Amino acid sequence: MDITTKFFGMFQNQEVIEYTLTNSNGISLSAIPYGAIVTKIVTPDKNGEKANITLNVESLEDMVAHRPFYGATIGRVAGRITDGQYIVEGQQVQLDVNEKGNQLHGGPVGLDTKLWKVKTKNEEDHASIIFSCKSLAGENGYPGNLEVEVEYRLTEKNEWKILYTAHTDATTLFNPTNHIYFNLTGDIKQTILNHKLQLSSSKYGMLGDRNLPTGVLKDSSGTAFDFSESKLVREAVLSDDPQIKSVSGLDHPFVLEQKGEAVQAVLSEEKSGRQVIMSTEENSVVIFTHNKEMDAFQIQGEPAKQYAGITLEAQTLPDAVNQSKFGNIFLQPEQTYHSQTMYRFSVLE
């Protein structure tokens, strides 16, 4: 395994270094300590041609100014929390809100806006970039001083493993994810509509006003949300389903039927032959299809077009703290949070 570094930019008068892990198969993963952001993942296609298969802006300045969440570590809580409120031990907690009266992706200064500490590790069959940071009590309205570690591990089996660890000194919430966008063509000027997606899921979370979960988990069989068999993403995104039309694509959680090392998602693109297989210990994956053009910044000289990427955001179901059947995202002082998500890169047979 190879670990290299290069200067990426400046943040608050500190140098930000990009770290790159490369395995013997020519697959590499690059990340920076600002936001513990994955800046690129390079993999070969079926002809051995290498390309970056993720979406990201090209400068630290754009990441800071526009906060697109591309490749970032999201927390303390991924997704939306209704009205930025929840009740714990009979007391209502009011979090800082930052989108239509709700809290989105951890609030105004989420983990994606922090400069994390970083170290690397190189073993015989894998190498890691290990990020750590502390979120102080009161930050974004959350109780508890939270210490977080996120390890990005690249293996010789072409696996990217994300390993989360956290602990707190007071009852708080924790439900992180990585907001990675894939575009397996290796060309972000092409859309992901001709990608194929398969999910180990038979239910999805319905959305209501302000894009909030309604609390209803609906059977996806026979609907546009049915990915039990591999199908083109365009079949869902361009459908007439009112849930999809209201947000111009997918922005929905899918309940995962298996956990651990079982395959829960398969994303593939036939022309390049590239494939990503996801396994996670979380109970859902949020699929978001970059539903509008982003013209506030440019990538390769152009705005990031509509459907430029697709996320596979593994997490506990969004707004779980306000939905009784969605899962438990409370973290207690006596607990240590552990979770793992894995993406394996390959080419179609």
UniProtKB/TrEMBL annotation:
Pathway linked to the protein: Carbohydrate metabolism; hexose metabolism
Binding site for beta-D-galactose: 179-181, 251
Catalytic reaction(s) noted: alpha-D-glucose = beta-D-glucose
Stated family: Belongs to the aldose epimerase family.
Species annotation: Marinilactibacillus piezotolerans
GO terms for MF: aldose 1-epimerase activity; carbohydrate binding
Uppermost EC category: isomerase
InterPro entries, A to Z: Ald1_epimerase_CS, Aldose_1-epimerase, Aldose_1/G6P_1-epimerase, Gal_mutarotase_sf_dom, Galactose_mutarotase-like, GH-type_carb-bd
GO CC terms in record: cytoplasm
Gene Ontology terms: biological process: galactose catabolic process via UDP-galactose, Leloir pathway; glucose metabolic process
CDD domains hit by this protein: galactose_mutarotase_like (cd09019)
Keyword Isomerase: yes
Active site (UniProt): 179, 313
EC code(s) of this entry: 5.1.3.3
The protein, known as: Aldose 1-epimerase
Entry keyword annotation includes Isomerase: yes
UniProtKB keywords: Carbohydrate metabolism, Isomerase
Matching PROSITE patterns: ALDOSE_1_EPIMERASE
